[in-house]
Amino acid sequence: MNKKIIFKTALGDIRYCVLDTATDCISQMEKVFGVEKGYGFSIEMDEKEIRLKDYFAGETRASFPIIAMEDSSLPVCLEQVREERE
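Above: the chain sequence. Below: its structure as tokens.
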């Protein structure tokens, strides 16, 4: 079973991605946010938020509140998809 992570962007949009629970979630989230090694950014995540960190300055550059983490039968999707909610 995969894990669907629903989060809010700085503009208030609701987005989601679907991670493979058998693979490291941080490396997958780096792909979701386009973070590449050697460019000064990293991803940190806990059950409440996703943080884009500048690891040279040690500062959080952006944070995304997690609305929900739920088991899902959706295929792995390492992109930010707009969540359509009614």
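The helical segments are 25-32.
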